[in-house]
Amino acid sequence: MTPDILFLRVFCDANGNHGNVLGVVRDGRAFPGEESRQALARELGLSETVFIDDAHRGIVDIYTPGVRLPFAGYPLVGVAWLLGLERLELPVGSIPVRRADGFTWISARAEWVPPRTLRQYGSTQEVDALEAPEPGEWVYAWAWQDEAAGRVRARGFPGRGDGINEDEATGAAALLLADRLGRAVAVTQGRGSQIMAAPGSDGTTHIGGRVCAVEKPAC
Fold first, then answer.
1. Which CATH code for domain 5-96+209-214?
2. In the chain, where are the structural domains located?
3. pTM for the complete prediction?
4. What's the average model confidence in pLDDT over 105-118?
């Protein structure tokens, strides 16, 4: 039986362009073990694939083509938009969700973000000129586009050696950047993905953006 998979474009712009494509398996029971889920994520070849284990309680499971993740930003924003719940449940904790002005937001703690190296550059031109590095550390390269306005230019290089040399939009890294800077940022990542992030008042950081459904997993 063909699995019921929906593809979403997360952190797209106002016209539905750009963004990172996410695969969502609507019924996680079709893939009951980690091995089968990892195999599907590898077959799809997307930055992340989410398996919905309980659509009513918001219990989800996240995979890259190579590993299972305890937390990730853009998959959670995407599945939050899809399910329409007030919370998602992950092993790391409960993820509050809100919606406003066409944006879907989640709130999470910076310590939940897997290791990322935030590497600041002096200009957006330097960031644009970067080549994807060899597999190694996960690098989030960024520069101020307009520091006073909180506008950032960024690119994400997972360094995992799983075929994803550059991530088009990475909510977890934007969350970590906003937490480190202690201020709200509006990030343009990759070819034009739009990510919003801002520290909260309770020790969490909010990340948000637009989401739309797409016909097939193409960026």
1. 3.10.310.10
2. 5-96+209-214, 112-207
3. 0.94
4. 94
CB 60, CB 91: distance < 8 Å: no
Provide the 8-state DSSP code for 28: G
Same-fold call for 5-96+209-214 versus 112-207 = yes
In our burial notation (b when 16+ CB lie closer than 10 A, e otherwise), range 15-32 reads eeebbbbbbbbeebebbe
Structure confidence at residue 1 (pLDDT): 45
Torsion angles phi and psi, residue 143, rounded to 5: -150, 155
pLDDT at residue number 219: 43
Q: Taking a C-beta distance cutoff of 8 angstroms, is the pair 150, 186 a contact?
A: yes
Per the rule left: phi > 0, alpha: psi between -120 and 50, beta: everything else, 21 is: beta
d(CA 126, CA 184): 23
Q: How far apart are CA 43 and CA 28, in angstroms?
A: 16
Name the CATH architecture for the domain at 112-207. Roll (3.10)
Measured distance CA(155)–CA(169) in Å, rounded = 8
User: CA-CA-CA-CA torsion for 68, 155, 26, 105, nearest 10 degrees?
Assistant: 110
